[in-house]
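step=encode ok
step=design start
structure_in=
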């Protein structure tokens, strides 16, 4: 199993390009299931999660043509004949649940494995199922599989009990081919939901309100082919900004946008960084030592849970004490014990972490437990004195394109160990 070796203590400087957003690409590639015509994509990141999804789509009968280096991809679901997502695929990537809505809408039937829990929490999909049932689907859960059937879904008013990103995306996709109007109340407002809506509209879907908490979809009989460019990854952007902030660095990130990063940028300013915003680039200059910043995760536009671990890492080496509250997932502080191995001062009480900055972190061997937790460990490793080895970096390969190359381009000393 690959590991990442980091020799810490180097300021990050220079420029790197931000990739297409994983969390936008995953639902958007599933949208191709809704059409019998080819859909062309650009800025598709070269990530393990994308490869997993493409293997799943291919198994269903979708023709996949990809130039991974160029970031281009064409999906042709005209031959879609196997609306099944088996456990072996879904267990490695929960986002596979995003095929459920499109499959029922297009094929009238789907068999999708229940994702099960994951390291950061139970993460049920009851809201996805409830929404499809409200649209008239017969849904049975048996032998670990969701079996949903409906000759044609019917438009409905849908209310989710909590804000769910993939739940909103699944139901929005399903509603595109339903009979009549669907209204999703309490919808997720994440920019990735908006990017998915843009792609669906390019395919002929009739959607309004994406980006607000009420989304309206007028069902149409069929969607056609289209071309769509995946938006930049706001979490990758935020992660590199944090890495530069923690190391006292000066970096410029290109092919990205500050538009979806307001709170994250605000927090970095509070921490003492200088930030220049350009049209599609962001430059950050960090002070010698950061100031601690409190934060509370919540659905967009509030502070993203996917940036919580990175900010915990920067608070470990900031002046003062920060209180971090995680309100989305019940078990998303696993990086804290690993950070403690590097010398961090963190106390956990339920969903609250109290982080008191220390003078320095020291390199050690640590274990990545989930994708964003690993990003927090990288940042700590870049700051720590001496050598940090991060085990189980397959978590990072799921979500960070060309991680070592990008960090190396910014001056970091990193090496992948097989
Ligand atoms: C998405 C993101 C993930 C991010 C998360 C929160 C993708 C592929 N993944 O995950 O990176 O961390 O949003 O911003 O976009 N819930 C239920 N029942 C449901 C659905 C959700 O109880 O049917 C709960 C979850 O357990 C969690 C909360 O609602 O506590 C929010 O989860 P959700 O927004 O659905 O997360 P994902 O869409 O899985």
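sequence_out=
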């Amino acid at each position: 199993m690959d590991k990442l070796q980091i020799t810490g203590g180097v300021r990050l400087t220079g420029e790197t390009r931000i990739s297409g957003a994983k969390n936008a690409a995953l639902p958007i590639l599933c949208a191709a299931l809704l059409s019998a015509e080819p859909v062309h994509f650009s800025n598709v990141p070269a990530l393990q999660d994308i490869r997993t999804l493409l293997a799943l789509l291919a198994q269903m009968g979708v023709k996949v043509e990809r130039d991974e280096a160029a970031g281009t991809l064409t999906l042709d679901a005209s031959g879609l004949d196997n609306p099944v997502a088996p456990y072996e695929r879904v267990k490695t990537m929960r986002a596979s649940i995003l095929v459920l809505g499109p499959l029922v809408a297009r094929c009238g039937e789907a068999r999708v494995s229940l994702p099960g829990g994951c390291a950061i929490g139970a993460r049920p999909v009851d809201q996805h199922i409830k929404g499809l049932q409200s649209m008239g689907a017969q849904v049975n859960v048996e032998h670990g599989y969701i079996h949903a059937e409906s000759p044609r879904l019917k438009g409905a008013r849908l209310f989710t009990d909590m804000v769910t990103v993939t739940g909103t995306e699944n139901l929005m996709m399903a509603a595109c081919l339903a009979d009549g109007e669907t209204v999703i109340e309490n919808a997720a407002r994440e920019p990735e939901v908006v990017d998915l809506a843009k792609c669906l509209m390019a395919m002929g879907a009739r959607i309004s309100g994406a980006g607000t908490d009420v989304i309206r979809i007028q069902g149409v009989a069929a969607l056609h082919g289209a071309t769509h460019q995946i938006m930049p990854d706001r979490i990758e952007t935020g992660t590199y900004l944090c890495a530069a902030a923690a190391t006292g660095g000066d970096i410029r990130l290109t092919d990205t946008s500050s538009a979806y990063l307001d709170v994250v940028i605000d927090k970095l300013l509070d921490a003492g960084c200088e930030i220049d915003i350009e049209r599609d680039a962001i430059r950050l200059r960090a002070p010698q030592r950061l100031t601690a910043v409190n934060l509370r995760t919540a659905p967009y536009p509030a502070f993203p849970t996917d940036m919580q671990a990175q900010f915990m890492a920067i608070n470990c080496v900031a002046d003062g004490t920060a209180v971090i509250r995680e309100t989305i997932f019940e078990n998303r502080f696993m990086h804290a014990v690993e950070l403690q191995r590097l010398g961090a001062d963190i106390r956990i009480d339920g969903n609250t972490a109290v982080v008191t900055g220390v003078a320095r972190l020291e390199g050690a061997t640590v274990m990545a437990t989930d994708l964003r937790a690993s990003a927090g460990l990288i940042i700590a490793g870049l700051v720590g004195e001496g050598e940090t080895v991060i085990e189980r970096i397959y978590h990072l390969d799921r979500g960070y394109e060309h991680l070592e190359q990008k960090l190396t381009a910014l001056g970091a000393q990193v090496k992948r160990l097989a």
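step=design ok
step=annotate ok -> Residues 234-246 form the longest helix (13 residues).
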